[in-house]
Specification:
eight-stranded mixed β-sheet; 14 helices; binds magnesium ion; binds adenosine-5'-triphosphate; alpha/beta; globular
């Protein structure tokens, strides 16, 4: 008898959709509470300010909170779409011009509700999102099974860490596991004293990675953010930092990170002709089962 996973594989393999330019960036970490959601929201916000069409996809299994951070209300999420109870369009929450939120749910549940009809419907609907330039995936902390699936399916992975040794050890564990299926990982050093501290920490991790992971694997520093008390303030007030403090040093750091990201990804997209779009992303996700 055919297993559910086999059925899913068949569906995704027969899914012929046009290629899309949408780039999927997963923001992850080893340890929790290092700033993934803050970074996802602010990077998404800036990209949309720059004129790109962006979606924030809340993939923090069981702990989805981007709706809270963005002060928007979501009654339904991606699970309702998979269950066939509503359309993808119905769950999308507009945040601002060029920025939408795709509310997330638990990966376990996604599998539980998977049957052929639902997935076929779902794949048909994903074309709705194919004109997006970027989808930022805010994952859960730690390299649990669900997070690993999202990282694998994403085009690029950003591992966030703070300078404390426990967070660095956990970040390295995430990098090591991610290196099994990605040839490049970006690091973002958050809550540092200064740029120099970020560089020193990155160099140390990079040395360990170079000698333990292998020369084909590339670890790059995408940038760093200083500890800024106004970030916590905006989180408490449910406002977006780069919007509230557009002229701050930290917003300049965020902008530098975003510009570097755009530059690096636009180079890479030239030799990237795998299935794109939201459908392509889910195809990659389901192919792993
Ligand atoms: N650069 C920074 N300076 C000061 N505070 C920060 C900075 N970045 C994040 N924070 C604060 O750290 C806390 C955790 O941030 P956030 O919720 O974004 O982390 P997370 O990695 O998404 O957490 P979780 O693993 O629980 O999802 C928040 O209160 C936020 O305000
Ligand atoms: Mg979070």
């Amino acid at each position: 008898m055919q297993s559910q996973a086999d059925k899913l594989k068949q569906i995704v393999k027969s899914d012929k959709r046009r290629s899309s330019k949408t780039k999927f960036i997963a923001v992850t970490s080893g340890k929790g509470g290092v700033g993934k959601s803050t970074i996802s929201v602010n990077i998404g916000y800036l990209l949309s300010d720059f004129g790109y069409k962006v979606a924030l996809f809340d993939a923090d299994i069981g702990l989805a909170n981007l709706d809270v951070l963005l002060k928007v209300q979501c009654d339904k999420n991606i699970l309702d779409v998979l269950k066939g109870e509503c359309s993808l369009e119905e769950i999308i929450v507009p945040v601002k011009k060029n920025l939408i939120l795709i509310p997330g749910e638990s990966g376990d549940e996604i599998l539980k509700y998977g049957d052929q009809f639902i997935y076929e419907r779902f794949f048909e609907e994903t074309t709705t999102l194919d004109d997006l330039d970027y989808i930022i995936i805010d994952t859960g902390a730690g390299i649990g099974e669900h997070t690993r699936l999202f990282l694998n399916a994403a085009d690029e992975v950003i591992v966030v860490t703070v300078p404390d040794p426990a967070a660095i050890t956990d970040a390295y564990a995430t990098i090591k596991i991610t290196s099994k299926f990605k040839s490049r990982v970006y690091m973002l050093l958050n809550m540092v004293k200064n740029e120099n501290e970020a560089k020193l920490i990155f160099d140390k991790i990079n040395k360990v990675a170079a000698s333990n992971i292998g020369k084909d694997f590339q670890l790059s520093l995408i940038g760093s953010l200083k500890n800024d008390k106004n970030i916590s303030k905006t989180i408490r007030n449910r406002t977006v930092f780069v919007k509230e403090y557009p002229n701050s040093i930290t917003t300049a750091e965020f902008k530098r990170i975003v510009k570097k990201m755009i530059l690096e990804l636009e180079h890479k997209v030239l030799d990237n002709d795998k299935d794109g779009g939201f459908g392509g992303f889910f195809k990659r996700l389901f192919e792993q089962f």
